[in-house]
Amino acid sequence: MDLDPISPVDGVKMFLDAMQDEHAESTRKSERHRLNAFLQFCDEEGIENLNELSGRDLYRYRTWRREGEGDGREAIRLVTLKGQLATLRRFLRFAGDVDAVDPELYEQLTLPTMKNGEDVSDSTLKPERAIEILDYLEGAQPGSRDHIIMLLLWETGARSGAIRGLDLEDCDLEGSHPRFNGPAVHFVHRPESGTPLKNHEDGTRWNRISEKAARYIEDYIEYHRNDVTDDQGRDPLITTQYGRPVGNTLRSTLYRVTRPCWRGAECPHDRDVETCEATHLDHASKCPSARSPHDVRSGRVTYYRREDVPRRIVEDRLNASEDILTRHYDRRSDREQAEQRSDFLPDL
């Protein structure tokens, strides 16, 4: 078949542009990051036209990416390699649709087989730790931005992008909504103004929050929230002095407040707090105890599972399928799960 010449850089740009209508910016950013290595490979190998790409090139790329050599490249974990190859496969399928490569080329890029559980992160914020951190914030920084971010992440179990996208108008702190007997927040998919939800319109939902959380949010709005609008003229709930925070702000907040030394607890890693680089704000993520918003979400799922909250309720509240919740968020041990099952089984 006739192919239209196009450079790898232009092909990737076209692929990312095509994603714009159907995918959140965070997804596009992740795909762009994963394809950077492929562009580097093409540059090193002198591949200037995607039409020239062959199955043999894809095999060489897989080895090049897995083993790492030269230019400071390091070998990567199998799960990381699988993610990067899956993205490249999607790109090649798109490239085939726009006559940049053979339409069947993507089939020649096989993905590594993962052993059971090998593609699942085991990082989480244990419910006990989450509650300790919230208790500390409630006493030391009540109604602060740090407190509200942690509180909303824990109470709703929502993704950080959903928390970031909340506006003042999305908060029913008096419980006046006819569907709820109490305060709630409304997560809304607004891609046209920069705050899409992971599952688009299907992610739009109301989540109940506690009366205590509502009162702390009221305190935050009155005493700590910057009275600013974002670039779209909206009134974000969580703010910086410049407007709506960037996505990394919530992640940095979690890294910082989940370090034990931050709240005066003893370092569990035998580090000298005076010299530990993780005590500096820019390096908080280097603390082995630091956790991300995703870890708060998995901790919340674990808490729900321990409390035997019906699965359908958890799926709806966290806007995720049962399979995703089980594979990526439930951190109960095998022993815990067995003991919970025994509560529902008759004695033999």
UniProtKB/TrEMBL annotation:
SUPFAM superfamilies: DNA breaking-rejoining enzymes. Gene3D superfamilies: 1.10.150.130, Intergrase catalytic core (1.10.443.10). Residues 120-342 form the Tyr recombinase domain. Residues 6-96 form the Core-binding (CB) domain. Keywords: DNA integration, DNA recombination, DNA-binding. It comes from the Archaea. GO terms for molecular function: DNA binding. GO terms for biological process: DNA integration; DNA recombination. This is Site-specific tyrosine recombinase XerC. Transmembrane segments: none annotated. Coiled coil: none annotated. PROSITE patterns: CB, TYR_RECOMBINASE.
